Sequence to fold (167 residues):
Amino acid sequence: MADERIIAGQGTAALEFLAELASLDVISTPVGGGGLIGGTALAAKGMVPGIRVVGAEPEQADDSYQSFRSGERRAVRTPNTIADGLRGFIGVRNFALLRGHVDDMVTVSEAEIVAAMRIVLGDLKLLIEPSAAVPVAAVLAGKLGQAGQRVGIVLSGGNVDLDALPW
Fold:
């Protein structure tokens, strides 16, 4: 069961982000166990009225997406995704936060995740883990926000196995 202190700690990333740039229309994070999206949603909704919070998952590890859509907590039995940090299942407490404070969930393909990693590395000179690339892939695929909206992404984690890079 997730500890409230962990969820609150995860939310500090959004607090720091929105302290610098409070004019966002949408904020997004990758979703694994749900602590980051839960903490982000609580922080963002408390700081920026009207902000939309959207979680992003790999298509092949979409338990939170399925749970959000169905209203019932579900698990993907054998998640098979390059985004290894997102292979976990949404926790009970985090599912309640997802249902109560997150506006939408989107999914992306494995190819979109790899393309997002390459674009971030090539353009921003940042090597991000596959899990962090999931919401980036969603933006690139046109699944987050609408034209003219300001979308923020929490680039999570720092776990990159250089020997397992997909290129």
Remarks:
- The chain has one domain: 4-157.
- The CA atoms of residues 2 and 71 lie 19 Å apart.
